[in-house]
Amino acid sequence: MSTSLNLTEILSSLQDYMTADGSISTEQRSFYTSFRTQLDAHLGTSLPRDIQGLMEAAREEMFEEVSDEEFEAYLLEVLSEFQITIPELGTITATTRPLVILTANGTRDLSDALRRRCIYAHIDYPNRQTELAILASRCPDIESHLGEQIVRFVQKLRHEELEKVPGMAEMLDFAAALAGLGIKDLTSDPAVLQAALATLLKTQADRAKVPIEVAARLAGKAA
Fold this sequence. Notes:
Elements: H1 7-19, H2 26-41, H3 48-59, H4 69-81, E1 83-86, E2 90-93, H5 112-116, H6 128-138, H7 144-157, H8 168-180, H9 190-196, H10 204-209, H11 212-222
Antiparallel strand pairs: 1-2
Helix pairs in contact: 1-2, 2-3, 6-7, 7-11, 9-11
């Protein structure tokens, strides 16, 4: 094995691979971009073991979510053999068995092949007390009365027949919007409440399902 690698050739190879055709997936492009950034930051690196370290550093950014079938197929080798095969650079094997956590947003079913390699865990929405604690931690300026109303309102809204049920991030955005608009009580101004729903309802169909009358009714129940 050679004791050094030509970083200029590696960078050129990565760039050629990224621009050769339009078939490269978003996740692969993200990986190569990340790896190139790692190399640019370590221009003095030349030993194979150092290159492997950079590969591993870039690899960590790939598992934040599972988004498409091509990426799932790419993950099968990682989960089965704990290695990654890069056409231009060969196979990189993990020196220690990693703990891999995959997340998916539920917009489509994961493949059977990927499920066989995973222990599945569903994370449901938190209960009221937990959601209140999260709200208090992330938005400490929200008064407790309004915070209670926000959590009850969002939890009731989740029972409506929506295309995209609002999650924790949307709840926090909703709270921040209400605070920014100077709202102290959800029932005080139905028009402002309806405007703030833009932070909770992210499709036109869902906005249509929650007109101002429905929002006011839910706010009344949450008061």
